[in-house]
Amino acid sequence: MAQAGRRGPGRDGPLLSQRAAIVFLLAALVGIGATVLAALAGNVWPVAVSVGGGVVPPAVLFFNQIID
Q: Nearest Cα to 38, choosing from 53, 23, 28?
């Protein structure tokens, strides 16, 4: 009997683990929040998007360290 967790020939597995998906989701939410806050502070949208994009890589590193 085949186990449910094993991949067989012709079957595709998940692209990301649950941990990686949560890390990337949290980093994306931090980036969106930073973009909104920068826009509300009076910055133009290109600057706000740059601020939001700039906080995503450190957020990935941070959440990767704190999530077991």
A: 53
Q: What whole-number distance in Å separates Cα of residue 54 and Cα of residue 51? A: 5
Round to whole Å and give the CA distance between 52 and 43: 12
User: What predicted TM-score, i.e. pTM, was given to this entire model?
Assistant: 0.78
pLDDT in tens, 10-56: 678 899 999 999 999 999 999 999 999 999 999 999 999 999 999 99
Specify whether the CB–CB gap between 34 and 55 falls below 8 A: yes
CA 17 to the chain's CA centroid: 12
